[in-house]
Write a structure and sequence with these properties.
Layout lengths: L2 H22 L13 H21 L10 H11 L2 H8 L1 H21 L13 H18 L42 H20 L3 H9 L22 H14 L1 H23 L6 H23 L3
Helix pairs in contact: 1-9, 1-10, 3-7, 4-5, 4-7, 5-6, 5-7, 5-10, 6-10, 6-11, 9-10, 10-11
Length: 308
């Protein structure tokens, strides 16, 4: 197998692992009360940082560029909305929507060289454009799929061990519930879909600082000259899945890996949502989802073959 063939094999294998892990990453959130998600964000980032530290040591601590931390900040900002999204429109639909907008943003910025990055070329640009276009179509189809999310209610089975006389008789009946739990049902879909779109755009911009450093590392007159092509330490990384994504970016280029890795997890998450959590029900929703999956699969194949 040629070096190019080896790179392709490594890239597609890494993409497959990333798709599986990204699609299952938030499954534990369905089993526990996560409040408004802020404490979860801290714990999640701490776990991710530990994995990133180990990977950085394995790479013998390449020179660290603070600008790369901006990518982690962008990712963390988008990730703040994860819990509200899952609580309002569900795990499957949430990842499907933000994954589609993630794909669009990441692909476009890499393909056209936004934000100072080098525009990336592929051997078969038409297939690449078709793949990206199908991702856009699938994103709008997902917006019409309705999910069934059970609303939390105040438990009346527990009473405090100690009580004191209330000063204000008009107290909140659910003091420990987050703003998401108190949100009227009619607004769930609007808030959830809007946050998913915003998160997707932010996720799609996560790698901009990293790719910018990698592109400019090849120029002798740049301050980033000689920077590592594996910039794993970017503030906050998404653990093993993100490491696989970096490998795929290097082997396939971001213009190919983005549509694959950002669209694929939605399929895995939707399987969780349909068969385990029963979030998506009804013949109409099933048909829309099947149609969207066919479009995603077609787009992913077009994107993959555009590199060959």
């Amino acid at each position: 197998m040629t070096n190019n063939g080896t790179d392709l094999a490594i890239g597609y294998l890494s993409s497959s692992v990333a798709v599986l892990l990204f699609g299952s990453n938030f499954v534990p959130l369905k089993k526990y009360d996560t409040g408004d998600g802020m404490f979860l964000q801290w714990v999640l980032c701490a776990a991710i940082w530990l994995v990133a530290l180990v990977v950085n040591l394995i790479l013998r601590c390449p020179k660290f560029w603070p600008f790369a931390m901006l990518g982690g900040c962008i990712w963390a900002t988008g990730n703040i909305a994860v819990v509200p999204i899952i609580k309002t429109i569900g795990l499957g639909l949430g990842i499907l929507i933000w994954g589609s907008f993630n794909a669009i943003t990441g692909w476009a910025s890499s393909r056209f060289g936004w934000f100072g990055m080098d525009a990336e070329e592929v051997p078969k640009p038409l297939l690449n454009y078709i793949g990206a276009g199908l991702s856009i179509v699938s994103a709008f189809i997902f917006l019409f799929i309705k999910s069934e999310i059970s609303n939390g209610t105040c438990s009346m089975d527990t009473t405090p061990l100690m009580t004191e006389q209330a000063i204000n008789t008009a107290q909140d009946p659910c003091p420990d519930y987050s703003w998401v739990d108190k949100l009227p049902t009619v607004y769930h879909r609007i808030v959830g879909c809007s946050l998913a779109v915003i998160s997707g755009i932010l996720y799609g911009s996560t790698f901009v600082p990293i790719i910018y450093i990698k592109d400019h590392s090849k120029r002798n007159d740049s301050i980033y000259a000689g920077a590592s092509q594996y910039g794993f330490l970017s503030g906050v990384l998404w653990a093993i899945a993100t490491c696989c994504w970096f490998i795929a970016n290097h082997s396939l280029s971001a213009v190919v890996s983005f549509p694959i890795i950002t669209s694929g997890p939605g399929f895995i998450a939707a399987l969780w949502g349909v068969f385990i959590f029963k979030e998506i029900q009804g013949l109409r929703n099933y048909l829309l989802m099947i149609l969207a999956f066919c479009i995603i699969l077609s787009g992913t194949l077009c994107t993959a073959f555009s590199k060959i």
